[in-house]
């Protein structure tokens, strides 16, 4: 995936501070399917949107492994194509329909004698549009919502019998159970950084947002399941886990002693797992940042100093119309407390411009808020009317050209702030988790504690390790660094991973 896929529930630009005009993050996944499988069929999964979808796509590929499916990077040789969709903005759904048009062509080209092609549409567009998708795009054999992918083998069998399958029930507990069974598979070597879904759905009902309708009510995954999956990931060599949820800091669970746990407590427990050196969580709602979670940022070395905390608007009037349940001052006060607890922490956020009724003065409040907060990276969008949400029918919709002008102005400011933040890292020593081969020969790429890609000349066997790096320069979207001698992560060199070994 791209390093800058939007953290949650959306279809996004591939770089922060980019908006509607830029391409949504569309990521094709190769998942961890056991290569020893005598697989004869190929599945191509195209993922639109957020990291939760990336996570779901990986799990789909895992479910299909034992069914004889291997992942493929091209649609051309696929027996099964799955589009894992995002519904947050209009364009996302339209992109799915135009992709379905291309798939129909591919199927036509193969002809009746050629290799059969089965087509599934998953995710939030599937959830929202249901049977309408199969009606509008008859090439589709299966439509299934975000809670149904673990039933894929059954859905495929039904589609193979000629049934037009539509599965959009909310059976979230069943999905979580299935996830846990999957996590108990024998340990496979994994990429150094992984996602772990701990929560799905949202009860906040911001008036612009479809998530409460497509992903349903807020449900937390049980603690024991999360711990099992985290341990499994760590055993597979994962050094960094990002906890995912549409409203992740609303996560709540029950400890072994029957006591209620919040996200802060969960993070403290996860930090005890040997090998897990980095923890992140996303996306948070300002209302759910409780004291213990803020204290966790002060206490846990493992909790990375970077927080995605969307505010959406800087105007109290618009925040109220958006049903955000907080004011701009609440947000300022919260950030002050977080920065007091964790002075080096950097913030990112999401903004919507042109929400119904937004005046020039409201927009000026947003710019003012951005100037006061100073973000490290942000995503910003023009408001898009989502059917079924209260915002869609509000009076005073803002004209497109006003939205565009505001977005350009906001993004210029956000880009400036992002560049300033990146510049401030020059000369700094930081720990970098190396994840993959770099762009240039001899380089490997890692991630800074603040989620910036860092390019370093270093041997490939350092991939999977955490090293101290000094930042020596800036690229357009990444930092350049050099290894600081004598700060080797012995854990990676020996293949074993332990807290003591890691720096
Ligand atoms: N129009 C524009 N942006 C939206 N987002 C969510 N719904 C809409 C919409 N209708 C943005 C918000 C949210 C992010 C995931 O997507 O900024 O935080
Ligand atoms: Fe949507 Fe608001 Fe819930 Fe985020 S908090 S998922 S923006 S309703």
Heteromolecules bound: 5'-deoxyadenosine, iron/sulfur cluster
Taken from the alpha-carbon principal axes, the silhouette is globular
Share in β-strands: 15-25%
CATH topology name of the largest domain: Rossmann fold
Number of strands: 22
Radius of gyration: 22 Å
* Category from helices, strands and their pairing: alpha/beta
Helix content: 25-40%
Q: What is the CATH-assigned architecture of the largest domain?
A: 3-Layer(aba) Sandwich
First and last CA, distance: 26 Å
Which parts are unreliable, with pLDDT below 50 for 5 consecutive residues or more? 8-38, 490-503
Instruction: Give the overall pLDDT as a whole number.
Output: 87
What is the CATH H-level superfamily of the largest domain? Methylthiotransferase, N-terminal domain
Helices, by number, come to: 15
Descriptive notes:
There is one protein chain. With 503 residues, the chain is an alpha/beta fold. Helix content is 33%, strand content 21%. The chain contains 15 helices and 22 strands. The protein has helices spanning 51-64, 90-110, 123-129, 131-136, 152-160, 172-183, 211-214, 223-235, 263-271, 291-299, 316-321, 328-341, 360-373, 400-423, 490-494, and strands at 26-28, 41-48, 69-71, 80-85, 118-122, 142-144, 165-167, 193-197, 199-200, 219-220, 240-244, 252-254, 260-262, 278-282, 306-308, 346-353, 377-382, 429-437, 443-447, 453-457, 466-474, 479-483. Strands 1, 2, 3, 4, 5, 6 and 7 form a seven-stranded mixed sheet that branches. Strands 18-19-20-22-21 form a five-stranded mixed barrel. Strand 21 and strand 22 form a beta hairpin. Helix 6 packs parallel to helix 8 (223-235). The protein is globular. Residues 8-38 and 490-503 have low confidence and may be disordered. The protein binds 5'-deoxyadenosine and iron/sulfur cluster (SF4). Iron/sulfur cluster (SF4) is lined by residues 9, 202, 204-206, 209, 211-212, 246-247, 285. The site of 5'-deoxyadenosine has 15 residues, from strand 16.
């Amino acid at each position: 995936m791209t390093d800058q896929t939007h953290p949650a529930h959306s279809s996004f630009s591939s770089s922060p501070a980019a908006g509607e005009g830029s391409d949504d993050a569309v990521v094709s996944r190769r998942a961890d399917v056991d290569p020893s499988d005598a697989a004869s069929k190929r599945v191509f999964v195209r993922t639109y949107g957020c990291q939760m979808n990336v996570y779901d796509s990986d799990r789909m590929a895992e479910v299909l492994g034992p069914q004889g499916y291997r992942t493929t990077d091209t649609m051309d040789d696929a027996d099964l194509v799955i589009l894992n969709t995002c519904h947050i903005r209009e364009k996302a759904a339209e992109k799915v329909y135009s992709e379905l048009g291309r798939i129909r062509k591919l199927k036509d080209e193969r002809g009746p004698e050629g290799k059969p092609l089965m087509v599934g549409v998953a995710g939030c567009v599937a959830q929202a549009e249901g049977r309408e998708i199969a009606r509008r795009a008859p090439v589709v054999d299966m439509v299934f919502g975000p809670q149904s992918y673990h039933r894929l083998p059954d859905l495929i069998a039904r589609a193979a019998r000629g049934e037009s399958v539509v599965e959009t029930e909310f059976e979230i507990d069943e999905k979580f159970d299935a996830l846990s069974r999957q996590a108990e598979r024998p340990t496979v070597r994994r990429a150094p950084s992984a996602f772990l879904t701990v929560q799905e759905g949202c009860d906040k009902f911001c008036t612009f947002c479809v998530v409460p309708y497509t992903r349903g009510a807020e449900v937390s995954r049980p603690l024991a399941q999360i711990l099992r999956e985290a341990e499994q990931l760590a055993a597979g060599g994962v050094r960094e886990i990002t906890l995912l949820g549409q409203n992740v800091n609303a996560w709540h669970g029950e400890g072994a002693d029957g006591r209620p746990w919040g996200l802060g407590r969960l993070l403290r427990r996860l930090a005890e797992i040997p090998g897990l050196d980095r923890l992140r969580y996303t996306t948070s709602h300002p209302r759910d940042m409780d004291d213990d979670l803020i204290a966790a940022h002060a206490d846990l070395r493992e909790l990375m100093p970077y927080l995605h905390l969307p505010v959406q608007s800087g105007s109290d009037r618009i925040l109220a119309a958006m049903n955000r349940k907080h004011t701009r001052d609440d947000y300022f006060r919260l950030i002050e407390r977080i920065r007091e607890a964790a002075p080096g922490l950097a913030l990112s956020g999401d903004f919507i411009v042109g929400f119904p009724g937004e005046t020039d003065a409201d927009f000026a409040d947003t710019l003012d808020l951005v100037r006061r907060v100073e973000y490290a990276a942000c995503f910003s969008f023009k408001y898009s009317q989502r059917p079924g949400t209260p915002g869609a029918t509000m009076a005073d919709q803002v004209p497109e050209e006003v939205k565009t002008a505001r977005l350009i102005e906001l993004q210029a400011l956000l880009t400036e702030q992002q560049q300033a933040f990146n510049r401030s890292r020059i000369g700094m020593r930081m720990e970098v988790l190396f994840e993959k081969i770099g762009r240039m020969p001899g380089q490997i790429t890692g991630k800074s504690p603040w989620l910036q890609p860092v390019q370093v000349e270093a041997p490939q066997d350092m991939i999977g390790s955490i090293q101290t790096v000094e930042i020596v320069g800036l690229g357009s979207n990444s930092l350049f660094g050099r290894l600081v001698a004598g700060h080797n992560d012995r854990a990676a060199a020996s293949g074993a991973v332990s807290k003591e070994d890691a720096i």
